[in-house]
Write a structure and sequence with these properties.
alpha+beta; 4 domains; 16-stranded antiparallel β-sheet; seven-stranded mixed β-sheet
Length: 1231
């Protein structure tokens, strides 16, 4: 009996053991950061990793290099002497983890060239090199300088999410915004994407990898050793033990409190941390892995595991404190081990020690339960698109009738079923549309589909400052200008036109448990269900039965890599004219996919339009029509019987058109337009529009038909208008292969361009491009060689006004010319050989950006109206207006020319101001040009109380019976006319510096007052009159400075310095005092805040000046009560020199969540102190009783400020001094 009991017990135990998951390791994830030093090839931990992999051959594995993969400035260009060393560093890192299944390189700040201007280009060098290894197991992520997040399923239980944290901190060029190639185009998109990935993978172990840690207790976290505070020079050289106990603490203290942008204390870094942490804390058990800090740390906070592994090739001081559980300043790495029983271990290994220096274990988080209650809906339902667009007659007058009735009309639609003809659809992910909710689906055959909400949610497309205001409701209301069912009639029209299309259907998405985590967001919505152009398209006639489908950005890349790949430009044009015809204005790069067809050599590409949400978009109502003007948003002209400006309507495709419509002549455009017009018959139009449900057709169907017919009749004219707009400037892009560009100047002023594919020996193989550019159509042709050995051959002894630019690109290029005209040639010195005797404008240089190709360089010129207003206590209210004109040109960033005209009138004093400012980018070489014309006439008013630091303002002067004035201040008024003209050459110095120099001219006349004024009494003391005497001055001025303010309007960090000097000479004068004088000023301002967004900002400014020589009173150094020492009157003290200190504390009180005008609101306090110095001909200050003034003028006060929509600052302050209290209203802060 006992035997059977023991047998039963053993059996039960065995069954229980079998049922328990094994605790064996099934996946290793190696985390190594900052391994970019050359010494990484000898990393002591290499043997540990190799040994671990050898001892566990059945365990899958991957390695992640956490940024700073190449020191000190990323992977250099191919022709740079540091390139080979950088490549070897990367190869060593790959070799160090040889044996893992996959390797991922994550970018760090050093890989972005330490955040320099050309960081994006250097980053692409590393990505390109990794790709060139042609090993799918080794990847650089995210690609293209995108921020991520990128999701990588390492196993069924482990998901890696990669973010480029330097993208957040990089202040220069980076892919962002609507036209970005990236899936996630803003920081808000990144956070939303991260949230979606984590939500979708609940129940799995998630490792989020980035370069910058969210928490650290090393140098970047403000932690320093005592030695660094006492002997700071040991950071430069280990032997420099020079004690500097106070000075040594300045830099560590700065990093702890203020920090560079690479330190956690910096507001931009804090914003990154706060944003990411707001997501992670909702997903306990998530691992956040980073490098950056050259140490090993384990930090636990809010159930999130923070792994810092940044000592891959160097190590620095770190301290265990705060949330830290482990900290070591030794070379090493971290490893995440996943066990079969859902246990997770984080281990740290240092130097060559095979035993973990620290480890922590935990169990994977369990997913939240999902409601599995099935839907009861099937068959069909009757629904409407939306109920929120009903409007009164008055509202429709201002905002338009639009398609409000269509949105409200109920129609019968089928209930969506996840089962299709190929089996059950599975949800891949949520889409990232700006205004729609969408899901990406896939059937068992691998074909993909999308479900996209008909209702729009435009909040993400609205600037953040406007999202909780009337603007949100206004934009939402204008969704009614889009036809909710436009997309379902497009396939028939597209078939008639002979272009590709999807086949959307309107469906009702019920409350289906198969929605899983997306059920709450997507259930019970009217949706468009359609094919997603992706992957193979065989069997899909509407996609041309293509061999493959690619994105716009992949096509651009493939065109660059191989000149056998070509775009069917006539097909592109047909598709774009179709867009124009149906009024679909939103056709940016990402709104297209491309059908790829195999040729004998290379590929042929034709565009597939997607997301036809904006077809038939109308512009009605007074307000929308105003905003569709040329100076505002001409793309919103709307679907009407006629189109005013086709080029403006095509705005969103401005880069697309200039990339894929470069080879067609005017006759090609006419032929395609005629062909399309003939194909779009009345029958085709009427049959298509009748596919709407009858109730929908009855509302607007007949009107849409009539508009389509009217637009068809004018299609050729619209096409020619857009052709001429595009023909003004054309860029012809080569490839990374070899090409021969032949340019012939023809007798009629035209220019013929042909491009041929060539062999390595330079022999022509086939023609790739041909077009004749006409002088009355084209201003400029740009030939962009890209890579490869390219030849540029110019012929023709004829003149033309068409500029031809040659940008050689990488590779060894050659140019020969016997033409009369000179092409403008760009390349690196030695990168393009010019045949002897060839005439060129030589722009070759050692600047690495000289060969840059920017397909998004084009910008529309602008002419826009302006309004202006201001107030001060002396002049009262200023009202005025003007206009702004901006033009653009080749490599003229941010513009070619900008002209600003402003005029204003002061009601109280009848003063008139006129100002004209002009800027010209690269007017002479790298020097920009500026014109500044300022006219103050006829009665511009300043105050004048006399020369000296203690001049008197007698507030009771109006009570003196001998003085005839209405108010005391009137006695001190100084009216004058002034014209000033400054012509300057300007140049940037580095990233933040500037320098300006040029001639200056002044014409000034002081008005002779008809009433009692102080200046009349003052004139009586002078040897000759100064009133009613025009003074002419000419001279030279220069200024230089530094400006690294984080925001020019709402500055919270940075400094601004400017020093200006003028040397002036009076001419055309008989004055005995006429002569030379010098006028010099300087100003230095500091701004500091301690968090992001800033709540408390300290601002300090010191400024001053000196005037020397024979100068007039209005050329004195003037201490101004409005702009310097508040509490005093405008232009209060006049002297030879001055010095002013301004101190402000700006504190954000909170936010006003106003529907009309939301704003941040704050208060400020200030203390100003300043004075002037003056000596008369006897060497004394006549305003001082002692002849030498020691008085400092003080003003203090405070007030409130607010930032409406966070677009501008309005401040209202009061300043108090010994002379009283004055109020100030201004746009912006004082400084």
């Amino acid at each position: 009996m006992k035997f059977f009991i023991w047998l039963l017990a053993i059996t039960l135990i065995s069954i229980n053991c079998i049922a328990q998951p094994s605790n064996k390791d099934i996946f290793y994830l190696y985390l190594i950061g900052d391994a970019g030093e050359p010494t990484v090839s000898n990393a002591p931990y290499k043997k540990i990793i190799q040994s671990q992999l050898a001892q566990n051959p059945g365990v899958s594995s991957a390695a992640v290099y956490l940024g700073d993969n190449v020191y000190p400035r990323g992977l250099a260009d191919e022709d740079d002497k540091l390139r080979s060393e950088g490549e070897e560093i990367l190869r060593s890192q790959i070799d160090n983890v040889k044996g893992v299944n996959n390797i991922y390189f994550v970018p760090g700040n050093h890989d972005w060239k330490r955040g320099r201007v050309d960081g994006l280009e250097v980053l692409s060098n590393q990505a390109t090199f990794i790709d060139s290894l042609n090993n799918a197991a080794i990847q650089f992520l995210p690609q293209g300088g995108c921020p991520g997040p990128v999701e990588v399923a390492l196993s069924d239980q482990l998901v890696l999410v990669i973010i480029d944290s330097q993208w957040w901190l990089h202040p220069w060029d980076k892919p962002s915004g609507e036209e970005s190639d990236c899936e996630f185009k803003s920081s808000a998109d990144v956070i939303a994407g991260l949230e979606e990935i984590l939500r979708r993978n609940e129940g799995k172990q998630i490792v989020v990898a980035a370069h910058h840690p969210l928490y650290t207790y090393g140098e970047h976290g403000g932690t320093s050793r005592l030695k660094e505070n006492i002997f700071p020079l040991t950071d430069v050289s280990k032997s420099l033990y020079v004690p500097l106990p106070i000075l040594g603490s300045i830099y560590p203290l700065y990093r702890k409190i203020f920090g560079s942008i690479q330190d956690i204390s910096h507001p931009a870094y804090r914003e990154f941390r706060t944003s990411v942490e707001s997501v992670l804390k909702n997903y306990p058990g998530t691992i956040f892995a980073a490098g950056h800090e050259h140490s090993l740390q384990y930090i636990s906070k809010d159930s999130v595991h923070h792994v810092v592994s940044g000592s891959g090739s160097k190590h620095t001081y770190v301290k265990q404190k705060g949330y830290s559980k482990f900290a070591k300043d030794q070379l090493g790495f971290a490893r995440v081990a996943i066990q079969a029983n859902n246990q997770v271990r984080i281990e740290y290994y240092t130097e060559a020690n095979a035993i973990a220096a620290y480890q922590v274990s935990f169990e994977m988080a369990h997913p939240a339960g999902i409601d599995q209650t099935p839907t009861s809906e099937n068959g069909t339902v009757t629904k409407n698109a939306s109920n929120q667009y009903a409007a009164s007659a008055k509202k429709m007058k201002w905002l338009g009738e639009n398609y409000r009735d269509v949105w409200a009309e109920k129609i019968e639609v089928p209930v969506f079923d996840f089962q299709n003809e190929n089996g059950e659809l599975k949800i891949l992910k949520q889409g990232g549309g700006q205004q729609t909710l969408s899901l990406r689906l896939e059937d068992p055959k691998g074909w993909q589909f999308t479900l996209r909400s008909i209702e729009k949610f435009p909040e993400k497309a609205i600037p953040e400052a406007f999202r909780e205001t009337f603007a949100k409701d206004l934009v939402q209301d204008q969704i009614s200008a889009s036809h909710p069912y436009a997309a379902i009639v497009i396939p028939s029209l597209a078939d008639a036109a002979g272009i590709y299309h999807t086949n959307p259907k309107v469906v009702w998405l019920p409350d289906d448990p198969r929605l899983g985590n997306y059920r709450k967001t997507f259930a019970n919505r009217l949706m468009l269900y359609e094919e997603r152009p992706d992957g193979k398209a065989k069997g899909m006639d509407f996609f041309g039965n293509a061999d493959d489908i690619e994105s716009t950005f992949k096509v651009i890349d493939k065109l660059a890599k191989d000149n056998d790949n070509q775009v069917d430009q006539r097909f592109v044009l047909r598709s774009r004219l179709f867009d124009l015809w149906i009024g679909d204005w939103d056709r940016h790069d990402d709104q297209w996919r491309w059908a790829e067809f195999d040729k004998k050599k290379g590929k042929l590409y034709r565009p597939i339009p997607r997301d036809r949400d904006q077809a038939f978009f109308v512009n009605e109502g007074r307000i929308p029509k105003m905003f569709s003007k040329r100076w505002a948003l001409p793309k919103l002209q709307g679907f009407d019987y006629e189109l005013d400006w086709p080029a403006g309507f095509m705005f969103n495709a401005r880069y697309f058109d200039r990339s894929f419509l470069t080879g067609l002549s005017e006759q090609d455009w006419v032929d395609v337009a005629d062909s399309l017009t003939n194909a779009l018959t009345d029958e085709a139009i009427e049959n298509a529009i009748h596919q709407w449900p009858k109730a929908i057709f009855d509302l607007h169907g007949e009107e849409v038909v009539k508009k389509l017919k009217a637009r068809r009749a004018n299609l050729k004219n619209y096409a020619l208008d857009h052709y001429r707009f595009l023909a003004r400037e054309v860029t012809i892009v080569g490839s990374d292969k070899h090409e021969r560009f032949e340019i012939e100047y023809l007798p009629n002023g035209s220019v013929k361009v042909e491009v041929f594919k060539t062999s390595k020996e330079g022999e022509k193989e086939k023609k790739l491009y041909e077009r004749i550019f006409k002088e009355d159509e084209t201003q400029e042709v740009r030939l962009q060689g890209l890579d490869g050995h390219d030849n540029f051959v110019f012929t023709g002894d004829n003149k033309t006004s068409i500029k031809v630019r040659v940008i050689g690109g990488k590779g060894e290029d050659h140019l020969t010319s016997d033409a009369r005209e000179k092409p403008i040639v760009y390349d690196k010195t030695g990168g393009l050989m010019v045949e002897a005797g060839s005439r060129i404008h030589d722009r070759r240089s050692d600047n690495k950006m000289v060969n840059e190709y920017n397909r998004r360089e084009f910008k529309y010129n602008l002419l826009a109206p302006l309004i202006f207003g201001n107030y001060n206590v002396d002049d009262g209210i200023f009202l005025g207006g003007g206009f702004l004109s901006t033009t653009h040109g080749f490599r003229k960033d941010p513009f070619k020319t900008r002209h600003l005209f402003l005029g204003s009138y002061a009601i109280n004093t009848s003063s008139f101001n006129f100002n004209y400012k002009a800027e010209f980018t690269h007017l002479v070489g790298k020097w920009n040009g500026e014109i500044d014309l300022d006219v103050k006439s006829p009665n511009f008013v300043n105050n004048f109380f006399g020369l000296g630091n203690e001049s008197v303002f007698d507030k009771n002067i109006d009570e003196n019976p001998a003085i005839d004035v209405d108010n005391a201040i009137d006695y001190y008024r100084l009216r004058f006319k002034q014209w000033s003209l400054d012509l300057r050459l300007t140049r940037k110095i580095g990233a933040y510096g500037f320098f300006k120099i040029g001639p200056t001219l002044q014409l000034v006349e002081l008005e002779h007052p008809s009433k009692d004024r102080f200046v009349k009494d003052f004139e009586a003391t002078l040897p000759e009159p100064i009133l009613e005497d025009y003074k002419y001055f000419t001279g030279l001025s220069y200024s230089w400075g530094i400006d690294n303010r984080n925001n020019k309007i709402f500055t919270t960090r940075g400094l601004y310095f400017e020093q200006t000097s003028q040397w002036m000479n009076e001419f055309n004068s008989t004055s005995i005092n006429a002569g030379d004088f010098g006028f010099h000023t300087a100003s230095l301002a500091f701004y500091q805040s301690f968090r992001f967004p800033a709540r408390l900002t300290f601002a300090t400014r010191v400024s001053g000046g000196i005037t020397r020589g024979d100068y007039q009173i209005y050329q004195s150094q003037i201490l101004d009560g409005r702009t310097e020492v508040r509490g005093f009157r405008k232009t209060r003290f006049y002297g030879d020199s001055k010095l002013v200190f301004n101190n402000e504390i700006r504190f954000k009180l909170g936010e006003i969540h106003s529907y009309i005008m939301p704003a941040n609101v704050g208060m400020l306090g200030f203390f100003d102190i300043g004075r002037v110095w003056y000596k008369d001909s006897t060497g004394i200050d006549p305003t001082s009783t002692t002849g030498k003034s020691n008085v400092w003028h003080k003003g203090f006060g405070g007030g409130f400020w607010f930032t409406p929509y966070n677009l501008a600052i309005v401040s209202l302050t009061a300043g108090h001094s010994v002379e009283g209290t004055l109020a100030y209203f201004r746009l912006g802060f004082l400084f």
